[in-house]
Amino acid sequence: MDQVGLSEAKLLDYVCAFIVKGLELLEYGSCEMALVSTSSICQGEQVALLWPRILTNATIKFAYRPFKWSNVATKNAGVWCTIIGLSATSYSRRFLFAEHQVQECNNISPYLVSGSDIICTPRNLAISDLQPMKMGSNAVDGKNLVLDSEEAQCILSANPSAGRFIRKYGGTKELVSGLDRYCVWIPDEKVEEACKIETINKLVESCRKYRMGAGRDARKAAKRPHAFCYSTYENFEFIHVGNTIGNSFNYVPANIRQAGYVSNHNAFTIYSSLGFEFALIVSTLHRVWAETIAGRLGNGTRYGNTVVYNTFPVPTLTEQNKIDLTRCAEDILLARENYFPATIADMYDPQRMDSEFPLVREAHDRNDETLERIYIGRRFKNDTERLEKLFELYTKMTAQQPLSTKKKKLKR
């Protein structure tokens, strides 16, 4: 990587070095090149790091959209791949291949869809009129303030009054699996009262000692060992969004949490939502956008607020649009309740969803139809058409907006 000038781009896959060397041949010789590559070079942060350099000297002549490659080894490590053909010559006809279909395009973007060479960059604010999405809170506690069910029950059995200082807690794992975890949560004005409970006091003191020996921010937080090191908590109902979309999931995992629940930093939160944001997040449109814009994490997709949610293009919604989408969100939640105590992992298993949890599938289908009609007046034919519309809208919306870091007041 050092030899081709990519030493500072630590996130790039090694195949990028071969691409850069190939670009040199394109520049000095009348030739073209094609490589089989990991699909991650066309997703997430790698696009902004690599593709401006490619597009300076070449264009995509043809591409094969991401496919899962595997071999015959005993321990088969399947990876997602793509095939990209590059040329220094500009062609009026380009070809985009996918399973069982070929699409003729005027241009193929770095995300391997028909469209312009726009590159999505992370944003601190949503380009659409949406409530802010924040990362959950991070304890940095040496596992002293976070409790499993058994630990929480032991504390409550010995000291029933400790219940005021123990709250439900979790991230993506708990969101999907339905597992219960807890945390010690003490408001600043209640520290003296809480620490009169011996078990709570021991946990707080253990947290203080841990932070004193940890990093700089942790040492600063040692002055407040009863509290999380980083807190984005608000005492309101919120939308809880997972930071990973499992490879078998067809929707972004999300749920509504009641006030008092503490999200950890392995998930995201949206407070003060009117409801329609939930409908957007669990839509097929949003899942397709996330899979394309975000990077892969193992066999799943890494979800992020700045790179996915804040860049997601939503047309201007009328009040009736918001009412319709909020009703769709409520229908999805009610459909889930019909199958209690089934978890999100159960209900969204593609092998079981249609046969065992049909009401959930039907609610999602209605949500998708309602949302997609807002975009184009009908259902999209496929994911390729979805992406083309999303990138078209993203290009228009970002052309009108600077990369601002200032907070804006949302109009409702």
Biggest sheet strand order reads: 1-3-2-4-5
Poorly predicted tracts of residues: 405-412
Number of helices: 15
Q: Tell me, what's the shape?
A: globular
Radius of gyration: 24 Å
**Helical proportion?**
25-40%
Mean pLDDT: 90
Number of strands: 16
Q: How would you portray this structure in words?
A:
With 412 residues, this protein is of the alpha+beta class. The chain folds into three domains: 2-105, Translation Initiation Factor IF3; 121-137 and 234-405, no CATH class; 138-231, no CATH class. The chain is 37% helix and 18% strand. The chain contains 15 helices and 16 strands. A five-stranded mixed sheet has the order 1-3-2-4-5. Strands 6-14-10-12 form a four-stranded antiparallel sheet. The longest helix is centred in the last third of the chain and has 19 residues, at 319-337. The radius of gyration is 24 Å and the shape is globular. 34% of the residues are buried.
For the structure shown, list the relevant keywords.
16 strands; 412 residues; disordered C terminus; Translation Initiation Factor IF3; 3 domains; 5-stranded mixed beta sheet; 15 helices; globular; 4-stranded antiparallel beta sheet; alpha+beta; 18% strand
Please write out the topology:
Blueprint: H1 15-28, E1 32-38, H2 45-57, E2 59-69, E3 79-87, E4 94-98, E5 101-105, E6 134-135, E7 146-148, H3 149-158, E8 166-170, H4 172-177, E9 181-184, H5 191-194, H6 198-212, H7 216-221, E10 238-242, E11 244-245, E12 254-257, E13 262-263, E14 267-271, H8 276-281, H9 284-293, E15 296-297, E16 300-302, H10 305-309, H11 319-337, H12 344-347, H13 353-356, H14 358-376, H15 383-399
Helix pairs in contact: 1-2, 9-15, 11-14
